[in-house]
Amino acid sequence: MNASRLARGVVFVLALAPGLWLAIDFAAGALATPYRTILHETGLWSMRLLTLGLLLSPLAAWTAQPIFVAPRRMIGLFAAFYAFVHGWAWCRQHGYDWGFLVAELPRTYLLAGLAALVLLAPLVATSNAASRAWLGAAAWARLHRLALPIAALAAIHFLLSRALPPRESLIHAALLVLAFVARAVRPAATRG
Prior knowledge:
By secondary structure, this protein is mainly α. Helix content is about 80%, strand content about 0%. The chain is built from 9 helices and no strands. Helix 2 packs antiparallel against helix 3 (about 70-95), helix 2 runs parallel beside helix 9 (about 165-185) and helix 3 (about 70-95) crosses helix 5 (about 110-125).
């Protein structure tokens, strides 16, 4: 087994584990406040994976180790999965009371979170090789640069909602700034 396949396998297991444990606890009735817990945990894991995914290309460039790029798509898809479950849990926590949910949307943190969620959809839909071939490499790359504003919107969502502990919020903010700066200063030929 080559190193890239091994890296993707390890990342798959590690990224799946939080969701699997949450699903097992939910099915067993072990969550005191199930939808609130799901909302909180999936939001945390989405943010963590989104931050990690954005750091992989700069890390690969700094270390000259292409193995860091291999699991990038999978990490992005898991980040999106947790984000979509996060959105569902918010709706479910409030009993799908659409009038209430729509009335809540003008809150800045909810708008930022919703915008990030909506922008994730085209990235997920075009994450496969067939979409890249159909769109062309340049258009596909431009579309997938949406990951940067998505990360900024997600960070705003978490900072304003106070969903992350303050220390973790600051760590995410610092890592995202690092990822943005690294992408800005890297030569265009090595950007990914």
